[in-house]
TrEMBL record:
Subcellular localization, as worded in the UniProt entry: Cytoplasm
Function statement: Specifically methylates the cytosine at position 967 (m5C967) of 16S rRNA.
Family: Belongs to the class I-like SAM-binding methyltransferase superfamily. RsmB/NOP family.
Protein's name according to its UniProt entry: 16S rRNA (cytosine(967)-C(5))-methyltransferase
Keyword rRNA-binding attributed: no
Keywords, ordered alphabetically: Cytoplasm, Methyltransferase, RNA-binding, rRNA processing, S-adenosyl-L-methionine, Transferase
Length: 449
């Protein structure tokens, strides 16, 4: 079967049963051979329908007599696909969106309801002729943004509290965009200029990123990453710009002992080894063996020798006490800063999961800060924008461990642009056009014991 809409439907059915969107998509894609344009359409339909689920459900609620949640689950999925194309895929003619959705209903045991599907979608089109937007929005700012941009209320509340309405709206828009891909050039094997020139010769466009000396952003659709020039030779690795900031904030020196306590799959471990000129020791610790295997592959491809792997829970590694010049804690988190990369992330996290994560984060920082020698540093980083996992973890840590203090970026540092009043760095994606990140550099003073 090669109908991209039917294949999208099959993948979405798995997502609604609990599968991760990227896993469900890959599983279906692996079984079929699709031309590139159909593969792109299918991917767009799956990720888009998952991401825009709340908006699409609200349209069903407002246009049909039965609410979205009361529709048979497969019919709801088919309606999502139809409304998604009508509302967000301007390149698809409305008639094609309606007809293919009616066909989907017919092919998936809803032949008796094709009139209903057709009527609902055509009603949307009629409403769109007479009003700028057929979707009716409530006045309440939380629900208004939540429905329009398809986020749960609790996430909108977290952002509104920090940013206000206008900025939150910009952030919501940003988080619904297709993500960009950034690379970090491995300065031990190549140079920015060499990679740029190899890409230009292959017809692949890239741009530089201000303040990040090893970063390049891919422009446009580049096809398979592994086929780009220099991948096999270890000239570069995929890493978002804001993640690259973390390594620079840690600022490791050749000969240092660095412990990366949540290291897999190794984006930052390999950056640290590169920044150290591959001289010294980088311990890559993680509790997930399968992710550490990826780290090992990455280190081998980049030809880095200074990395040593350690599998286990980093809250329980007494051998490392007082041994490190620097520790990186890139903590497991709710990922609210990278929701544009994971279509279903906004529906998976909850206020309760955020609380649990903050306990884990506090446990990790309390234990692994013991790995640092007096006068050494710990960088705490997350890709979330939730204060409970960021500022609150750090405040609690500083209150309980008085030997530690925040070391704010120097005023002349290019990163001071992201600095908060307390000296932490916070990257708001809609302002900086990179993933959302929180990071802070902490110093262990000499009066630690
Ligand atoms: C945000 S990811 C790390 C990403 C990595 N630093 C990079 O740049 O590629 C968080 C990692 O923490 C690991 N993790 C979670 N709990 C842990 C624990 N108690 N001890 C060690 N690792 C843990 C997870 O397996 C996951 O690989």
């Amino acid at each position: 079967m090669t109908n991209p809409r039917q294949l999208a439907f099959i993948a979405l059915r798995e997502v609604h049963k609990g599968a991760y969107a990227d896993v469900a998509l890959d599983r279906v894609l692996q079984k079929v051979k699709l031309p590139d344009h159909d593969r792109r359409l299918m991917t767009e339909l799956v990720y888009g329908s998952v991401r825009r689920q709340r908006t699409l459900d609200t349209l069903i609620d407002q246009i049909a007599t039965k609410k979205a949640q009361q529709q048979p689950p497969d019919l709801r999925t088919i309606l999502h696909l139809g409304f998604y194309q009508l509302r967000y895929q301007q390149r698809i003619p409305a008639s094609a969106a309606v007809n293919t959705t009616v066909e989907l209903a017919k092919e998936n045991s809803f032949s008796g309801l094709t009139g209903f599907v057709n009527g609902l979608l055509r009603q949307y089109l009629r409403l769109a002729e007479t009003s700028p937007d057929p979707l009716k929005l409530p006045e309440n700012p939380v629900e208004r943004l939540g429905i329009l941009y398809s986020f749960p209320d609790w996430i909108i509340e977290v952002w509104l509290e920090q940013l206000g309405f206008e900025e939150t709206e910009k952030l919501c828009e940003w988080m619904n965009q297709t993500p960009t891909i950034d690379l970090r050039v491995n300065i031990l094997r190549s140079s920015l200029e060499e990679v740029e020139s190899a890409f230009n010769s292959a017809g692949v466009l890239v741009s530089r990123i201000p303040h990040l000396p090893q970063a390049l952003r891919l422009i446009g659709n580049t096809g398979g990453i592994q086929n780009l020039p220099g991948f096999r030779e270890g000239w570069w690795t995929v890493q978002d710009s804001s993640a690259q900031l973390v390594g620079h904030l840690l600022d490791p020196k050749p000969g240092d002992v660095v412990i990366d306590v949540c290291a897999a799959p190794g984006g930052k471990t390999t950056q640290i080894a590169e920044l150290m000129g591959d001289r010294g020791k980088v311990w890559a610790c993680d509790k997930t063996a399968s992710r550490l295997r990826k780290l090992k592959e990455n280190a081998q491809r980049l030809n880095l020798q200074s990395i040593e792997i350690c599998t286990g829970d980093s809250r329980n590694l007494p051998q490392f006490y007082q041994t490190a010049d620097r520790v990186l804690l890139d903590a497991p988190c709710s990922g609210l800063g990278t929701m544009h990369r994971h279509a279903d992330a906004r529906w998976r996290q909850t206020p309760e999961s955020v609380k649990e994560l903050s306990q884990l984060q506090f446990g990790l920082i309390s234990h692994t800060s013991n790995f640092v020698k007096s006068g050494g540093f710990l960088v705490y980083a997350t890709c979330t924008l939730h204060p409970t996992e960021n500022e609150e973890v750090i405040s609690r840590f500083l209150a309980d461990y008085p030997a530690w203090q925040i070391e704010p970026p120097r005023r002349e540092s290019p990163y001071s642009a992201y600095s908060t009043p307390s000296g932490c760095l916070k990257v708001w994606p809609h302002q900086q056009n990179m993933d959302g990140f929180f990071m802070v550099r902490l110093r262990k003073t000499n009066n630690s014991e």
